[in-house]
Amino acid sequence: MSSSYVTKIGRKQSLLLPEMIDDYIDEDNPTRLFDSFVDSLDLKEMNFRYAVLEEGPGRPSYDPSDMLKLYLWGYYNGIRSSRKLENECHRNMEVMWLIHKLTPDFKTIADFRKDNVDTVKSLFRKFNLFLKEQGLFKSHDIAVDGTKMKAVNSMDRSYSKEKLKKTMDDIDRKIDKYLHDMDENDEIEEDIDKEKIRKAIEKLREKKKELKDAELKMDSSGTNEISLTDPDARQMKTRQGVDVCYNGHIAVESENHLITDYTLDNNTNDYASVLPLAEGTREFMDSFDLSADKCHFSLPNLEDLSEAHIPAYIPVLNMETPTGRLDCPNRNTTGASSYMIRRRMCIYALRATRCTIISFAKCRSSTGSGIEYIRLMPANCAPSGISALTHLDGE
């Protein structure tokens, strides 16, 4: 074993031949990808602010291509805060290389995102076309899933029509009580802080006016719910309970885990996201099979996917059909040849393509031996316009 450590370079030692910053970035570093991709874009065509220089007094603006590179690098490395990105500009060698040692402050970085928020979708599309040209969309299996994303709005400032009416009634009762207490005090001539009570009443009246304005907005928009801080957010069920959220969905290619499309809306259910994600994916992939969990199951979804000729696998839920109710079997259901279906092993799925539904399940026999049992969907249980077929799923 060596008796000395690796030789260090003194911090104040002058270099005879200064090193290039380019030497610090490996050829396969993802930072080079962001640089090449942004340089290939026409930011004027994409309507990025300051992509066209304007004559006039004042300090020169930052090149939007450099700001975009900084944001892409930040998202890739999990850094979204404008203040943290500002710090990286001063200390991170990758960022110094990427934006040529520029050091924008956090407000400039934040303003760039605010000023160019409408370009995100077109930028995402351009990047996916770039990935397609590189042949990175290799798998034909697309998985769809979503999550509830917490909005900047507390539950206390989110109202349904019922909650709005109840809150305004409570405010009226509190104001009446304050006025009644003041009248009683005048009769008994007891000394109280009337100015404090007047301020409390005024505050309650301002709150009621805010709620009244919210009620008018709900009536004019035809919605049954409104959030005062983040107007587009809605109350949704999450694993932690009910919260004010947005509903985000992505479609992901299974081999390289690349996102082919995304949606973000305030729908409380997941039904509406399936077809837009499938159609968005089709722009980058000629053919694919789409799979989603049971939250995305609905008859309109199956019919829409069938009409669009998009193969989709979605778990079956109990449902009403034009000719009766179709129920998923539970652990006590018996089928042909006395096979017992166990819920924990079921993988019921529907294949919606060319107006065809196929239902199949993994089951066990009553003796416990593992087999493949194919459940036949009766023709009179199939949704209108979709025929039921027998599918033999071999090992």
Description:
It contains ten helices and 15 strands. The protein has three domains: 21-134, no CATH class; 155-227; 252-388, no CATH class. Helices cover 35% and strands 17% of the residues. A hairpin with a 5-residue loop joins strand 5 (241-253) and strand 6. The chain is α+β, with helices and mostly antiparallel strands and 395 residues long. The longest helix has 28 residues, at 161-188. The chain has helices spanning 30-39, 64-76, 82-91, 93-98, 106-115, 120-133, 161-188, 194-221, 274-282, 299-307; strands at residues 141-150, 158-160, 225-227, 234-238, 241-253, 259-265, 289-292, 312-314, 319-321, 324-326, 350-351, 356-357, 361-364, 370-373, 387-388. Strands 1, 4, 5, 6, 7, 8 and 11 form a seven-stranded mixed β-sheet that branches. It starts with 29 loop residues before the first helix and ends in a 7-residue tail after the last strand.
In short:
This protein has 395 residues and is α+β, with helices and mostly antiparallel strands. Helix content is 35%, strand content 17%.
